[in-house]
Amino acid sequence: MAFLEVRDIVKSFGGLRALQDVSLSVEKGEIRAIIGPNGAGKSTLFNVMTGLLSPDSGEVRFDGERISGIPPYRVIRKGIGRSFQITNIFPRMSVFENVQVALFSHHRENRSALTLARNFREVTDEVLAVLGLVGLADKFDSSASVLSHGDQKRLEIAITLACRPRLLMLDEPTAGMSRFESRETIALLQKISREQGLTLVFTEHDMDIVFGISEKITVLQQGMVIADGEPAEIKANPEVRKAYLGEEIAE
Ligand SMILES: Nc1ncnc2c1ncn2[C@@H]1O[C@H](COP(=O)(O)OP(=O)(O)OP(=O)(O)O)[C@@H](O)[C@H]1O
Ligand SMILES: [Mg+2]
What we know:
The chain has 2 domains: 1-73 and 168-178 and 199-251, Rossmann fold; 80-164, Rossmann fold (3-Layer(aba) Sandwich), CATH 3.40.50. The protein is 39% helix and 24% strand. The chain has 9 helices and 10 strands. It has helices spanning 42-49, 72-77, 95-109, 116-133, 149-162, 179-196, 207-213, 231-236, 238-243, and strands spanning 4-13, 16-26, 31-35, 57-62, 65-66, 80-83, 167-171, 199-203, 216-221, 224-229. Strands 6-7-8-3-9-10 form a 6-stranded mixed sheet, sandwiched between helices. 39% of the residues are buried. Magnesium ion binds next to helix 1.
């Protein structure tokens, strides 16, 4: 069985079928993009995969265990970190504090037996290590609100990484970034995925980025998987080209 298995997921909102029999499997360490036009169901699929929504039918299995239908805090404990399409940080706290809060709650949830003092020291080291990983160590003291949009997204990634996920799910990690910021963020994600053996599943509208880093791509359209495979196959797929009107996917 694959590391992450999505099987026959159906999810409706009233009369709207947002996901129709969606299946996909992701191997450990893989970088997988989930793409599709606006409203295709990408965020809904992320919400089902991370416990924010229960599917009407079908199941999600992670590392052999069924995770669909269990609440988000338990999904996180199983080793799945996620970021949202809209940045989710504490603007009034410093960069350091944002990651510190995430780490403290992670340690508490894991019922760490460390004493508070030892815990505090270890957390400080861990916060600095995570900030170093995303290139924000020199801004640890800045208020999160004054960061550039790109740096806020990096901070969100740091918060997600603080809980030591084995699978990182990022919904439009480069939304609203300049081209330069996007490229930097993607290079960062690629580096983290390689160095930490992290499995990465992400959604993205910029096709240069998608084809630049993905090992596999799943294409959704109107809640259905219309293609799934390696970038070269996806690029050549006539249905995919039609879905994108041939505009964004260059030869
Ligand atoms: N909570 C909800 N209630 C009702 N309809 C919803 C809800 N969430 C999503 N939808 C609908 O489900 C469909 C899929 O939405 P979703 O947000 O998953 O698309 P998406 O692929 O993430 O789009 P985008 O690229 O714009 O982020 C859309 O038609 C959307 O309007
Ligand atoms: Mg979305």
